[in-house]
UniProtKB/TrEMBL annotation:
It is found in: Cell envelope. Its main location: other. Keywords: Signal. It comes from Pseudomonas rhodesiae. Residues 37-331 form the Imelysin-like domain. This is Imelysin. The keyword Signal applies.
Amino acid sequence: MFRPKLLFTSLAALALGACSPQDPQAVTSAAIAKQVILPTYSRWVDADRQLAVSALAYCQGKESLDTARADFLHAQKAWAELQPLLIGPLAEGNRAWQVQFWPDKKNLVGRQVEQLVEAQPQIDGAALAKASVVVQGLSAYEYILYDAKTDLADSAQKARYCPLLMAIGERQKALAEEILASWNSTDGMLAQMSKFPNQRYADSHEAIADLLRVQVTALDTLKKKLGTPMGRQTKGIPQPFQADAWRSQSSLQSLEASLAAAQTVWVGVDNKGLRGLLPSDQKALADKIDAAYAASLKLFASNQRSLNELLNDDAGRQQLNDLYDSLNVVHRLHEGELAKALGIQLGFNANDGD
């Protein structure tokens, strides 16, 4: 029997439900996952697919060393952009170490690459996955393409290193594809950052807290990646070989890419980043963080010299100090005032104890 009054009541309830304000933290978490993190992971997969193709083409003599190096730098930039987004599977099970081994205080990369090409001259991607994380990733790839010991103009030398170069390309491609598939799976990170509660997060506030922790850890890591070669932990004595990409002289470009990615999490797409969660009475803090990002990125963009070159004179060292100080401002604002404004207890970060 038709009951118009009951139907009207049901429709009214549905309309009210549709108009009720959504949880802003849930909206922000889902937006950052879908509009910022997922596209960055997809670019990483594309870059690593190209890296695998590039290694094969170079080793077959169909591509120049310059092109192989350009493809490496592209993959390294894609990885750098993931630093503030290491949330979920890539942050677990030593996977990040499988992409880049840093810090490398004892030149383990160089030593283990040489040992591996001697012990397994025809290594492939599957065998490499069982080897030390030191030789699986971009640090080992960089060693082969850039280190002074590897004279790739010599055909015998090139033939010696090429199986490992191709294996690393295959390994990085497989790892990136595995992580992206995990993100997109039914109960993967995209779903877990979009609908609450779930196995990982009891509510949206936990997801936002996790995002901020990852940001704070990443910004702290950027300071370490700059401060270590500057000598900030060695009484002012520079340690240029402790830079994360010293062989390719691309450390500062990687830091800039990481910082720009962190800014994207802050701003978001359509203002659906962490910034959008601040109430109107926190506009001064939002403006302060905007200015801190802008100032630091401007310093990176205005520099045309490599980290090594900057370490060699007083003016360069002052530039590095200015860069470090600008990163420190961004880091401290996230760790202190932003965490407090969002009601987040940060606790320990992944770098504590380093």
